[in-house]
Structure prediction request, 274 residues.
Amino acid sequence: MESKQINNSPFVNTKFLELVKSLSKQKDFETFKKGYFIDHGVLYNIGNRDYVDYRPSLKTSQKTLEKRKISNLQLDSLTYEQVREHLKDKQYEDVIIKKSDHSISLSLPKNYDSYLENLGKKKRHELKRKKSKFMTQLGEIELQSGNDLVIFDKFIEQHKLSFGEKGSFMNKEVELFFRDLLAIKGWKIYFIENNNELISSAFVYENKKGCYLYNSTKNSQFDPINPGIVLIDLIIQKMIEEKKDFFDFLKGFDRYKIDLGGLPTQLYDLTITL
Prediction:
């Protein structure tokens, strides 16, 4: 994964970091650099890892860390390249590196036919079968997008109806966080409907280079015809048509991400004692 994809992601945006700082209940602290803070001599990431998929790259010297009286670093969601950068030309008392999450991303080809070809025979056949089943029941469906309160309320309502932890995740505080995100440039909701009923939705961040899938919902009544897969496929088609470079599924090793051509990147937690 290219560093530009991380450093141009929504997770390095100052407005996003302010929102996620509040959501994560992190008190006022001494800011170190964008995305990082100091608390009692320990350097942390801003924002809970459940809400922040990538971390801004941090280039700093051991001398600077010592000057700021930092004795320990406790960081998460770093790529291998970011871990190497933290360790380059430095001598620490102790270093602990642990594998944590995976992020999954898809590099987009020049056209949709090439995308299907790159999937391989088995995955291509499965995707076509699922789309055919969907269209047989509902016909052609238009991909729509918006960031108004009408679609937002539908997204929230559908999210709360999700099974298990996904449904309980969307409490009032998280709902307000998502609402505030939609006010930031680049955030929107892609969705498909049938007779004005929401079938599936994707809460995304989009810029000139690509699209980041932050959250999604689906109407469980339509599960047999794979509404989530159909929606993501429509978004991928749109991104290819607009000459975007990538579609980033973000964290979570979900099977559908691999089935749609995504490739995993291992992320790491890093603890350093100076």
